[in-house]
Specification:
Distance between the termini: 42 Å
Number of domains: 2
Order of helices and strands: HHHHEEEHEEEH
Structural class: alpha+beta
Number of strands: 6
Strand order of the largest sheet: 1-2-3
Number of helices: 6
Helix content: 25-40%
Radius of gyration: 22 Å
Length: about 180
């Protein structure tokens, strides 16, 4: 499956998720928002992914006149994303009040799909390691190497969290990598 097919599959999955979660919720949005759901989730395990558009608009711009507000219908708030880990082998994702439990295989598939999509997005990840970045490293990962027809080397390493991660190195970069790894 090439990158365009993977992106198409990811977009279709996102569209289905939006239709399943956001559309029914948009029909039944209470005037006070979704405050009760936010209060019920344990604060120490949930990770907010985005602020609502209404919150951003209120802090960024002064309020418009009453006539403009009456003319334009209010946009429903964007759903929030919460991620919890109720058990070692389970992750729950809550989007707009709808919760889905994911098993390890499903988490791996989600990581793979998100990684493939992120690779084509801009801006790219920062060139340096960001301060405070959290990570899990894999000691002595399983690896596979393959020589490409143009002289490049494909190195695939198995990370315990990300799964199989491929890297392609030009011959010059292979030499630089060797020098970095053997430098005392």
């Amino acid at each position: 499956m090439n990158l365009h097919e993977q992106l198409g599959a990811l977009e279709a999955g996102v569209d289905q998720l939006i239709q399943a979660v956001v559309a029914p919720q948009a029909q039944n949005i209470p005037e006070t928002g979704n405050e009760s759901t936010a209060q019920e989730a344990p604060a120490d395990k949930s990770v907010p992914a985005a602020e609502t558009a209404a919150e951003q608009a209120q802090t960024a711009e002064p309020q418009a006149g009453a006539a403009e507000e009456a003319a334009a219908p209010a946009a429903p708030p964007l759903p929030t994303l919460e991620i919890n880990r109720p058990a070692q082998n389970e992750i729950t994702m809550t989007i707009g009040g709808q919760t889905v439990a994911l098993r390890p295989e499903q988490v791996g598939k989600l990581i793979e799909e998100l990684s493939n999509a992120r690779a084509s997005m801009t801006p790219e990840p920062p060139p340096g390691i960001p301060p405070g970045w959290r990570f899990v490293s894999t000691k002595n990962p399983v690896m596979a190497v393959q020589k490409q027809s143009n002289g490049d080397r494909l190195l695939v390493m198995r990370h315990t969290g990300h799964g199989w991660v491929p890297f392609t190195f030009s011959p010059d970069m292979v030499i630089q990598l060797y020098m970095m790894l053997t430098n005392k």
